Amino acid sequence: MERQGVIVKVTEPTEWVNSMVVAEKPRTGQLRVCLDPRDLNKAIKRPHYPLPTLEYITSKLAGAQYFSVLDARSGYWAIRLTEESSRLTTFGHYRFLRLPFGLISAQDEFQRKTDETYEGLNGVMAIVDDILIYGMTKAEHDNNLFVMLERSRERGVKLNPERSVICATEVSYFGHLLTADGVKPDPAKVGAVRDMEPPKDKGELETVLGMSNCLSKFALGLSDVNVPLRQLLKESSEFVWDVQHDKAFKKMKELLTCQPGPVLAYFDPLKELRLQVDASKY
């Protein structure tokens, strides 16, 4: 990290000294050095920059036929810290020269920089370091991709070819499959749900319901099916797994893993729009 220019030695006293933690990268299994800046985060004013949602991304994809997903290499480390900010990130005998993981403002700043980098480009959107390029025709997609790559070169953004997919009709993006027809559930997530065992306590049940919630938009009536499971999470409820819970658990898995799975069409503003609203006397 010192050779890469990510950290530098500190030889003088500093006002802040943070702990260091080592985390495993989820995709590669490699180790990542992170700060444990719990005290520092209390003193940082978080900018609260809005992170694009998958729903926002897919609302722009009506008519898209070709997709690419590119990964920004080095992630947060691509952002250089000011001298003042760098001295706040001291750990041991080193301090960060690049934006470290763990800071409460890191994701906000990274998303802001990414949006600024690709501002004004057609068919280019990004959530953190995953950049999506799309087009209604192959020619349009290729042009959008070329312009995006030129902008990346101009701004010094390095991309990871090993984790990139170029000009495909179907790509995996944030736990979903983006296709020419619409959004599908990612087979990896569907497989994980299919392999789930009944939970043994409330903690495992929360994990199960969290996984199912990620795919809930593909399962009509899911909220009605898992009512018995959600009731087990009440503070006043003791975790006792019986026949009704086992039945609800199996039905929930059937809804989430049925094949062929549903395809949700992209929102198309050119088509007729109908609003279905709920009302209350309150």
UniProtKB/TrEMBL annotation:
- What is a single Pfam family found in this protein's UniProt entry? RVT_1
EC number from the UniProt entry: 3.1.26.4
Query: What residues does the Reverse transcriptase domain cover?
Result: 25-176
A Gene Ontology molecular-function term?
Answer: RNA-DNA hybrid ribonuclease activity
InterPro entries associated with the record = DNA/RNA_pol_sf, Retrovirus_Pol_polyprotein, Rev_trsase/Diguanyl_cyclase, RT_dom
Which PANTHER family would you find in this protein's record? INTEGRASE CATALYTIC DOMAIN-CONTAINING PROTEIN, PROTEIN CBG26694
Query: Which family does the record assign?
Result: Belongs to the beta type-B retroviral polymerase family. HERV class-II K(HML-2) pol subfamily.
Q: Quote the protein name from its UniProt record.
A: ribonuclease H
Tell me what organism the protein belongs to.
Labeo rohita (Indian major carp)
